[in-house]
Hints:
The complex is a heterodimer.
Chain A: H1 21-29, H2 35-47, H3 49-71, H4 78-87, H5 95-126, H6 140-145, H7 148-163, H8 181-189, E1 204-212, E2 219-226, E3 235-241, E4 255-257, E5 265-270, E6 273-279, H9 282-294
Antiparallel strand pairs in A: 1-2, 2-3, 3-6, 4-5, 5-6
Chain B: H1 6-14, H2 17-28, H3 31-47, H4 60-79, H5 112-124, H6 128-138, H7 144-151, H8 155-179, H9 184-191
Helix pairs in contact in B: 2-3, 2-4, 3-4, 4-7, 5-8, 6-8, 7-8
Amino acid sequence: xxxxxxxxxxxxxxxxxxxxxxxxxxxxxxxxxxxxxxxxxxxxxxxxxxxxxxxxxxxxxxxxxxxxxxxxxxxxxxxxxxxxxxxxxxxxxxxxxxxxxxxxxxxxxxxxxxxxxxxxxxxxxxxxxxxxxxxxxxxxxxxxxxxxxxxxxxxxxxxxxxxxxxxxxxxxxxxxxxxxxxxxxxxxxxxxxxxxxxxxxxxxxxxxxxxxxxxxxxxxxxxxxxxxxxxxxxxxxxxxxxxxxxxxxxxxxxxxxxxxxxxxxxxxxxxxxxxxxxxxxxxxxxxxxxxxxxx
Amino acid sequence: xxxxxxxxxxxxxxxxxxxxxxxxxxxxxxxxxxxxxxxxxxxxxxxxxxxxxxxxxxxxxxxxxxxxxxxxxxxxxxxxxxxxxxxxxxxxxxxxxxxxxxxxxxxxxxxxxxxxxxxxxxxxxxxxxxxxxxxxxxxxxxxxxxxxxxxxxxxxxxxxxxxxxxxxxxxxxxxxxxxxxxxxxxxxxxxx
Lengths: 295, 192
């Protein structure tokens, strides 16, 4: 078997062509593919339900392993912590001095780590993303505002509810006509969303809406599906949250999260409300975000 | 790369003790052994401070590398003492990659408690080389290349081990699904 090599020496991702076919989907699900390599697999996932299932399976498995193993780990023994601290103390320093020094230096240590992390994120954000979506110059706040687990929750909810509309919560009855949705959402959320949430000009028909518990505040989940006459089968999920919880982002500017994943997330804010869009087709998502934000 | 003082270095290292202990615990399976291993890791780290360079992922991969070396040094010592062998735990020898695709499951169709229990058991039963890669990837969030650097093996070996480890776990979960009367094709259909 040919050993995988990076796309280029600067890139940390393995090259798609060097990865055995049966491992490529996993590498994609793990966020290890970038640029064209990721795009190739993304197209396959969009067209092949079995591949999409494979990606979901891998992501669920990883989350399950993380949850299970963290839950099964006992707390670090205090006696061990003391021994390590003692071992790290310079000869002649008192234990009290050690604690004082840690208290003083820890923020600096953390600041150094955060600085480096921010630098790397910023550099990553300046690289061109697939699908022509150019992230806004300040991507770092988005990742800080929306934790990875929340992004994953959007993906899970989109996959579950777009395939089984009945999984939408139906405690609150929303109209089935998209033209009536802005008014109904204003009544439910207390704020006025865009006057039109219609994506039919892009080939997507509104299927249903329901109240939703993510991203945390009161929000409405709208599901759109590609019209049969378009020849596509993908769907999109739009969450509208009744609160300006994305402060720090430029208004009406979509921010891309997870550009290399199967279900990227676009987020933006408008008139005191927060919008979250994900779907099976990144290109369609981009068009939908532009359509909504520019009217 | 940022220069760090001795105090900053030690504080950065100590701040990672929970992650290092977690890794040590899942490698050794015994709290006492894990504590010994963590202590040894930190002693080695403090001695090797001059060789540390703070990079984008912080100090954690560097500590994991020391932990890995310390763990396998112990394993090697134990191997010379036959009574301490732990071969019964081996799920499959590394390198025995199956070319067949592992089954895919929508885990949401299964009971979480049972999934957790079965997963834990399956992970504990993995060969340490698989388990270590799996944990560095899934729990500690390291990228393939970082794991390769920690373990000192080629990238392809990491991908291969991760592939095999996941295949084993998926097979275990398939067993659980079968017990619950859910067939693979049915699970895939319901997920579409």
